[in-house]
Structures are given as structure tokens and as C-alpha cells.
Amino acid sequence: EAGASVLLLRACLALLALPIYLLSFLGMWEPFCRKVFFPFILDKICTVHDKKSKKHKQELFCNLLDFRGPSGELKVLEIGTGSGSNFQFYPPGCRVTCTDINPNFQQSLSKNMKKNQHLHYERFLVAAAEDLHQVPSGSVDAVVCTLVLCSVHSVSSTLKEVLRVLRPGGAFYFLEHVAAEHSSWKYFWQQVCYPTWKLVFAGCCLTRELWKNLEEAKFSELKIKHISVALPWTPIEPHIVGCGVK
């Protein structure tokens, strides 16, 4: 019953997004999406998301300094930095290395760097989350990842890389949207929107149960909290937030 309704509504949604499906078929949507549409729309979504998630992020990052290395410095690696909306939450003087698979966020990224001159920006790497070979093993005190695990090709490979680059005792901070409760309407709509949403928003998957991947990764300590961050008219309300220690 639900299966048939999902398929029917998916087809309706695909009809509404037909021009995008056609551009994708012609190989024209992905480059446009990566270069123009996604950086633009993400900037807009992040502005709203930042307001709604601000207190969660303040709580999440408040103990970052506890993970300073033996030198007394805090080295942070951010995966999927995008426009740099997390910079405001990092403590003064910490050294930040930014990575993103998409190099087209320059405009909003440099705006956020100018706004947050309390940080040292080490370097910017164009890299997939699953392959951070440019970052030496055990070289960072904290890894940060917000709204990124929804669109990586492999969550488990990404978490392996996170654990590799962290020094022993280092921490992984995350805030991600996840699948809703299976019996809920929210989950029903996530399933309906799934294919079109994934195409339009550069590979973003709505129904990942990321807490399971985190529990399977080899963290020595792991705190996960299920929260709700309501973005009007979007199917991405259920989130998880937390921290894992290597």
C-alpha cells in the first residue's frame, strides 16, 4: 500500500522536476549543479539551518579546547567545509585545515574567513571525504563534519579516514540529518522525495541511518543525540549530533 503511493508520488515529483532530469540525461545538470546551483542554494539553506541549529552547535563545540594536542595547539580538520559556516564556533587561535570535494564555494567561504579572523587557516584541500591522503595519519586533534555524511559515496570509508587522521584521544564532531522513524509520515515523505532530492541536491540521501555507521566505527567513546532541526518545506527535520573519541 505505502509502496504504491510512494512510487506514484515519486513519479509526480519527477514530472515536476522533468527539466532537471532532462538536463541530467544530457550530462548538463551535474556540472551546473556543482558550479552554480548547489553553492548558491547551500548558502541559502545554511543561513536558515545555522539559525535553527546554532544552540546545538554551541553546545557541540563548547569543549573543543579539551582536545588540544601536547603542543597546546588545537588542530582542526573540517570535512566538507562548504561556505565555512562552522568557523564562528571554533576557539580563537585554532589551526583549521579545510577540505571539500567541490571547489566552487570560494565566494561565501572567503566571506566567512574574513568574518572569523580569530582562526589560523592552514590550507584548503579539494578532496573527497573517503580519500584524505593529503592529510598525514594521526596529525589532527579534532575532525568536524556537518551535513556532509548524507552525500558521501561511502560513510564507512569516510569514518575510516576520520579515525586515521585523528591522533589517539582526538575527537570527531558531527551534526547530520538522518532518516526519520520508519512508521512516521516524515519517513514516508523522505521516501517520496528521495530520487528527485538526490538529483537536485548533489547526491544528498534523505534516508541514511547514520547513527548505525557511527556505532559500527571503532570509536573508543561515542555520544549521539537525536534532535529535531525543522527547516520549513524540507524533509530533513530529524538530525543527530554528537562526538566520538578515537
UniProtKB/TrEMBL annotation:
Residues 77-174 form the Methyltransferase type domain. CDD domains: AdoMet_MTases (cd02440). InterPro entries: Methyltransf_11 (IPR013216), SAM-dependent_MTases_sf (IPR029063), Thiol_S-MT (IPR052356). Keywords: Membrane, Transmembrane, Transmembrane helix. One of its GO terms (molecular function) is S-adenosylmethionine-dependent methyltransferase activity. The chain crosses the membrane at residues 7-29. It holds the Pfam family Methyltransf_11. This is MET7A protein. It comes from Pardalotus punctatus.
